[in-house]
Amino acid sequence: AADFLAISAAKQKGTSMVILLILIIAAVGISNTLLMAFYERKTEIGMLRAIGMDDRILFWTFILEAMGIGLVGTIIGLAVGTAMVWWLVNWGIDFGFLIRDIDVGYRISGVFNGVWSAKSFFQAILLGLVLPALTAILPTRRALKLPITESLRRE
């Protein structure tokens, strides 16, 4: 049993590492998208700031934009994930050809089936909305520190 628990713990750590890398890639993508959105609208944002729009309102505008991007990605991801899990639950993937010659002393099923997990879906929704908002804070603050005169300059 100790060996099984050790393998299970190692497998969990490996899965956690892959998920962490995926989250980092998503954070960089969202941050890049927001910076590009700011630089494309730099003069408009500078004009809004010049006529007196509060930086907090602009800050929350970018945060909500990031959450909107996250919402769209979450909806698409959940739709694709639901379709894949549904397929895995109903039919699965047959790996029988790989283990047909293996004798471990008892019968092994060669079909890999999925399982519905509501917790995973709720975590995906939460991460899909919170991660973009948290990722947007740093580039938005950096963009709003730019002087208004610099924002109004056309290149």
Give a description of the structure:
This protein has 155 residues and is mostly helical. It is built from six helices and two strands. The protein has helices at residues 2-40, 42-50, 55-90, 96-99, 118-144, 148-152; strands at 93-94, 111-112. The chain is elongated. The N and C termini lie far apart (67 Å).
Please sum up the structure shown.
By secondary structure, the chain is mostly helical. It has helices spanning 2-40, 42-50, 55-90, 96-99, 118-144, 148-152, and strands at 93-94, 111-112.
Features:
single chain, 155 residues, mainly alpha, 2 strands, 3% strand, elongated
Reading side by side through the largest sheet, how are the strands ordered?
Answer: 1-2
Work out the radius of gyration: 23 Å
Question: Residue-averaged pLDDT, rounded?
Answer: 85
Which overall shape is indicated by the principal axes computed on the Cα atoms? Answer: elongated
Number of helices: 6
Main β sheet profile: 2 strands, antiparallel
Poorly predicted runs of 5 or more residues: none
